[in-house]
Amino acid sequence: MEIRIVADEEQRGEVVADLVEQMLREAGSAPVTLGLATGSSPLPAYTELIRRHRENGLSFAPVNAVLLDEYVGLPAEHEQSYHRFIRDSFTAHIDIDDRAVLSPNGCAADPDAEALAYDRRIREGGGVDLQILGIGSNGHIAFNEPGSSLASRTRVVSLTRSTISDNARFFDSAQSVPQRAISQGLGTIGEARRIVLTASGEAKAEAIAQMAEGPVSARWPATTLQFHPDVTVVIDEAAASRLELDDYSRLHREPGTAGAGADHTAR
Ligand code: GLP
């Protein structure tokens, strides 16, 4: 796991956008699958990618996008559905065919069958080339709450009280937050070829420390990423504040000072 600590939100967006752009350039015109996360954490990266599309002509034409999760019971057009969120905040502003942006149908008559079919579609589509992730304050990724099997597949999950209260800010009240979601499983996410996880703020510091340095455990689902060979973590100082190992790359020193842009901490 490689940890990159950045100075501010702008740089956090740029570093994540660099990894997406690198993947797109490596793929050329070949089809490529980008895994997208919702939540506020990836927004600086989406803003930067939209800017690069508009100003530098970065093209997403060969991209298939797959979302991690969706609330059960929210119609696609609901303003807090992840279907809508990803369009409003990212994919409506770049050159990606709307039909190439895939998410679970939260209103499927049979959510369990929808979850199974979604998992199969990802696999049959050749899997995810680069997965963008956020992290919950309790260490969840997608909606894999503490206690999730590290081998879990896409399924219907119940949200914890802590996640409902974290996400209540997007709704009128905690009572309006759906209590279930269809979420890619930890096993599903772990099949992505590359992963970039991004977070900011003190509220994420414990989850980040556990993920990078703690014992692998269902108590902190993101610790499963320690098994993945290609994970980059892009965080600010506040989110990094509980890491105990002290030699992670800090990308925000002035050029010329010791360690500027150093990449000596890849593990
Ligand atoms: C939600 C999403 C996750 C996201 C997490 C953190 O629960 N299902 O994919 O990573 O919240 O959200 P935020 O980035 O807004 O803190």
Q: How would you concisely characterize the structure shown here?
A:
The protein is of the alpha/beta class and 267 residues long. It contains 7 helices and 11 strands. The radius of gyration is 18 Å and the shape is globular.
Keywords:
267 residues, alpha/beta, 8-stranded parallel sheet, 3-stranded antiparallel sheet, 7 helices, 11 strands, binds 2-amino-2-deoxy-6-O-phosphono-alpha-D-glucopyranose
List the helices and strands and how they pair.
Layout: E1 2-6, H1 9-27, E2 32-36, H2 43-56, E3 63-67, E4 69-71, H3 82-89, E5 101-102, H4 111-124, E6 130-133, E7 155-158, H5 161-167, E8 180-183, H6 186-189, E9 194-199, H7 205-213, E10 231-236, E11 249-250
Parallel strand pairs: 1-10, 1-11, 2-3, 2-6, 3-5, 6-9, 9-10
Antiparallel strand pairs: 4-8, 7-8
The structure holds 2-amino-2-deoxy-6-O-phosphono-alpha-D-glucopyranose.
2-amino-2-deoxy-6-O-phosphono-alpha-D-glucopyranose binds next to helix 5.
Bound molecules: 2-amino-2-deoxy-6-O-phosphono-alpha-D-glucopyranose
Instruction: Please write the string of helix (H) and strand (E) elements.
Output: EHEHEEHEHEEHEHEHEE
Low-pLDDT residue intervals, each spanning 5 or more residues:
256-264
Judged by helices, strands and strand pairing, the structural class is: alpha/beta
